[in-house]
Amino acid sequence: FTHQASRLARCASPNLVRVIDGFEEGGFLYLVLEPVPGQTLADLMAETPLPPEATIFSFLRQLVPVLDRLHHEGIVHGAITPHSLVVREDTGDLVLADISLHALMLAQSTELDGAETSPAHAAAQFTPQHDIQATAAVVYSLLTGTFYTIEEWRSRFPATNATLGSEDGMSQDIVFQAELHTELQRHRPHLPAMVS
Description:
By secondary structure, the protein is mainly α. The protein contains nine helices and five strands. It has helices at about 1-10, 40-45, 55-70, 100-115, 120-125, 130-145, 150-155, 165-185, 190-195; strands at about 20-25, 30-35, 40, 85-90, 95. The termini are far apart.
């Protein structure tokens, strides 16, 4: 566990909550994280359901490198939502402020299993794709003013789960893009042309 906490510490970034300590005591695991003063994206959505696109895309540009670092270290967050992302009050930067023990233990489990991990076991674990889909759900929520969980996102746009490169995946992707643009146009008429 302490090794996993050290791996998390190596991902240090202004956009990732700082790990102060990680230890085991009395049979319990503890992860000590820096408190991040600010407003969660969930709070922001409650006050401003449709924030400016420039703000949303700035948040995305800050979050993607953090996820890349975590995934490079074998750590999948597994719970990215507007509640786990905080806009720091002093700088306005977006901070991934909620790293769970569960995420670190999954990383440890994957590391220990190595090549022995069965397909069924791997399927039960979170993967980087889960974080990417959850991030897409957050961005889409900010763009449309409607909160989507990752489960709702997958249900609403099943093409995000399709196998890339397959004929079925390509056809679903066409439908996905059409639905996505229709939904966005309802809230932000100028945006579909920008993102297509």
